[in-house]
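task queued by scheduler; priority normal; single chain, no ligands, no partner chains; default sampling; output format set to structure tokens
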Amino acid sequence: MFQVRFSKITISMVFSLILTSCGGGSDTKSQPDPFALVGAEGLYDGMSISEKSKVSKLILNDGTFYIVQFAYQDSSTIAYFATGKGSLSDGVFRSNYFRFVSVSDKGYTPNPVYSFQGSIVTSSYGINGPRLLSSSINHLPLAFTVDFDVLSYEPQYQQVANLLDVVGSYSGAISFGSSDYQATLPPSRDLTTLTVDASGALKGTTNNGCTFSGSFAPYQRGNVFNASIIFDDVPCTFAKINVTGHAYFEPNTKRLYVLTMQPDGVEGAVFTGFKN
């Protein structure tokens, strides 16, 4: 059974942005490299001091965002990921509803009813960072706020997505979970080997014999990929189900993230692994 540990949850959204503008000449590419950031978009990475765990955030130019937090003192197991959509207005980024998907038994309780908002403290935009992100989240039904630790902006977000960067074999785990309190799907985690070829086709095998396939394609902006996975029949947890979302790669750690949801937006699957 899940146990709530909201006092240690670290989802955030108050931004501190310090950007250095830089000039440039003409560039005929459709997506400059690097390109100017829009609103709160970017990839953010760091540690939660309260949870003693790794946290990663991706915010896309259209306001779609993902938050990944690893388990307490365990950088190999994802405790939850969250996904939703927000918008920037009058210096405040708001999301009135997003899905919080628990994918482990590390003490987090799924609940789709969350709202967060964060103020941009310094709105000086430019082409390059550094940008820092810290924030808090309001859990409206229980009327409390939890704080979040500072994350650093990862400049590789401003590179053009290239499939050749992610080609290879990865060893990690795929985790499954639900954002529904009444879920019949318990969180699960399967050790997984995943491969990506130069065309963006991916294939994977888990330690319990599940196989799956799918594809990556560069997203319209940023060093991000559209991701689609379809699982084969049993013993797959999501047997014959297609999930979609986004993927990104950390070149400094050689770590790949694939964050996906089912069409109903209730249950999700997340893969994270290191390139071999």
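post-processing summary
- The chain has a mean pLDDT of 75.
- DSSP finds one helix and 21 strands in the chain.
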